[in-house]
Design a protein that fits this description.
Distance between the termini: 16 Å
Strand content: 15-25%
Radius of gyration: 14 Å
Protein name: Thioredoxin
Keywords: Disulfide bond, Electron transport, Metal-binding, Redox-active center, Transport
Order of helices and strands: EEEHEHEHEEH
CATH architecture: 3-Layer(aba) Sandwich
GO biological process, one term: cell redox homeostasis
Number of helices: 4
GO molecular function, one term: metal ion binding
CATH class: Alpha Beta
Largest sheet: 5 strands, mixed
Family: Belongs to the thioredoxin family.
């Protein structure tokens, strides 16, 4: 299984049976399977999506957006409920090219990606259990 470190963007190869053993990046020591969302930069996003073999759920958000702030704790709770999905946050104000590349028209918007391919998208605030159920239906 290949996982990209959200901190240094190094690609790590982890045996499937060791995914539950709290693997860390061989380059920087950052946790690879933390059960919480991680912020990722616009520059790192393409490599993270194309080289991470697990599904990735992206939350496009902005700090000034009230619904985005309401969604944040739900997204964090969903990350704890689904440790087999990588949860990342992309600040659409800090990453305008990523927002444009993925056609983000409203926020918050969730994008489910696997193998660099978009599987599904959902806009608006939804509860944590519904986020997980929504993602699982496409996996």
């Amino acid at each position: 299984m290949h996982l990209v470190c959200p901190s240094c963007i190094a690609t790590n190869r982890i045996p499937d049976e060791r995914l539950g053993d709290a693997p860390v990046c061989g380059k920087c020591g950052h946790a690879l399977m933390a059960a919480q969302p991680v912020a990722i930069s616009e520059q790192a996003l393409p490599k993270f999506l194309s080289h991470t073999e697990l599904p990735v759920l992206i939350d496009f958000w902005a700090g000034w957006c009230g619904p985005c702030r309401a969604m944040a704790p739900q997204f964090e709770q969903a990350a704890q409920m689904a440790p087999d999905i990588r949860f990342v946050k992309v600040d659409s104000d800090a990453a305008p090219l990523a927002s444009q590349r993925y056609g983000i028209r409203s926020i918050p918007t969730l994008l489910l990606v696997k193998g660099g391919r978009e599987l599904a998208r959902q806009s608006g605030v939804i509860p944590a259990a519904q986020i997980v159920a929504w993602a699982r239906q496409y996996l």
